[in-house]
């Protein structure tokens, strides 16, 4: 079973993540961070920015790879994951934007962009620590239920549920949410040396219970973490309430 840490609140979760990543950067200035979007990881990035500042860490060599991107959404769009990662990670941490990669969702090149992205991760030496949120249906990155557990980075169709969940970032209008995305595959994610999945609130309780205690199944992509040699779930009491 994966390691499960139940914390009192989001701040405690963010502080745990930040301490372990700051220790990593201290040991390994060329650390490779796996980044995620969504509201869940924000508290972790805020705490990491404070650790970086307080410890005076040199992050100029740190590399980052985001999990996913919408397909066909211009990168300049404020809700493109490139924009979100720039705003929430690159700028507050002071990372070098050249060293931070987001899958390329441009439609013209999307057929080959996935394999290129996986190659770039390998060439960087692989991801040291991958932060993950989880969708209410158990998706990680944008690997919706039914995604192959061995998948690499590729184009995917977003489910209705995910488009409804993400409409809040698009003026509450689901029709503005793109229909497709490019996402690291579950196989790609599983290659990271350490996986840290954060989940907060009661609406994640079913997904957390299925991921931690359910059978490993493509119908719950986050359940793949049970097969990983170093996976940590950091959840608040509400998200842990169905364990
Ligand atoms: C999106 C992202 C996922 C994220 C999920 C949950 O679908 N692609 O990486 O885990 O949303 O988001 P939130 O953390 O806002 O609940």
List the helices and strands and how they pair.
Blueprint (H helix, E strand, L loop, with lengths): L2 E5 L2 H18 L4 E4 L6 H14 L7 E4 L1 E3 L10 H13 L6 E2 L8 H14 L5 E4 L21 E4 L2 H7 L13 E4 L2 H5 L3 E6 L5 H9 L17 E6 L7
Parallel strand pairs: 1-10, 2-3, 2-6, 3-5, 6-9, 9-10
Antiparallel strand pairs: 4-8, 7-8
Helix pairs in contact: 1-2, 2-3
This protein binds 2-amino-2-deoxy-6-O-phosphono-alpha-D-glucopyranose.
Structural class: alpha/beta
Bound small molecules, which ones?
2-amino-2-deoxy-6-O-phosphono-alpha-D-glucopyranose
Uncertain residue segments? none
Give a quick account of the main beta sheet: strands, pairing sense, barrel closure.
7 strands, parallel
Order of helices and strands: EHEHEEHEHEEHEHEHE
Strand coverage percent: 15-25%
CATH class: Alpha Beta
Record the strand order, biggest sheet. Answer: 1-10-9-6-2-3-5
Distance linking N and C termini: 13 Å
In DSSP terms (H or I, runs of 4 or more residues), the helix count works out at 7
Catalytic activity: alpha-D-glucosamine 6-phosphate + H2O = beta-D-fructose 6-phosphate + NH4(+)
Pathway: Amino-sugar metabolism; N-acetylneuraminate degradation; D-fructose 6-phosphate from N-acetylneuraminate: step 5/5
Pfam family, one: Glucosamine_iso
GO molecular function, one term: glucosamine-6-phosphate deaminase activity
């Amino acid at each position: 079973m994966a390691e499960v840490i139940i914390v009192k609140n989001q701040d405690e979760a963010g502080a745990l993540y930040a301490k372990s990543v700051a220790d990593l950067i201290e040991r390994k200035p060329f650390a490779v961070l796996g980044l995620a979007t969504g509201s869940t990881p924000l508290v972790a990035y805020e705490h990491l920015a404070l650790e970086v500042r307080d410890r005076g860490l040199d992050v100029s060599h740190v590399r980052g790879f985001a999990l996913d991107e919408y397909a066909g959404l211009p990168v300049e769009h404020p809700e493109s994951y490139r924009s979100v990662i720039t705003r929430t990670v690159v700028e507050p941490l002071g990372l070098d934007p050249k060293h931070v990669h987001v899958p390329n969702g441009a439609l013209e090149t999307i057929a080959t962009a996935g394999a290129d992205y996986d190659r770039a991760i390998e060439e960087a030496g692989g991801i040291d620590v991958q932060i993950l949120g989880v969708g209410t249906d158990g998706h990680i990155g944008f690997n919706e239920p039914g995604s192959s557990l061995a998948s690499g980075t590729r184009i995917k169709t977003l489910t209705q549920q995910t488009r409804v969940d993400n409409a809040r970032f698009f003026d509450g209008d689901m029709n503005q949410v793109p229909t497709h995305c490019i996402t690291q595959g579950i196989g790609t994610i599983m290659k990271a040396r350490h996986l840290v999945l954060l989940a907060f609130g009661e609406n994640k309780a079913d997904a957390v219970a299925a991921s931690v205690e359910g059978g490993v199944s493509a119908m719950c992509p986050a359940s793949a973490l049970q097969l990983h040699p170093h996976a940590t779930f950091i959840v608040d009491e509400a998200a842990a309430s169905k364990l």
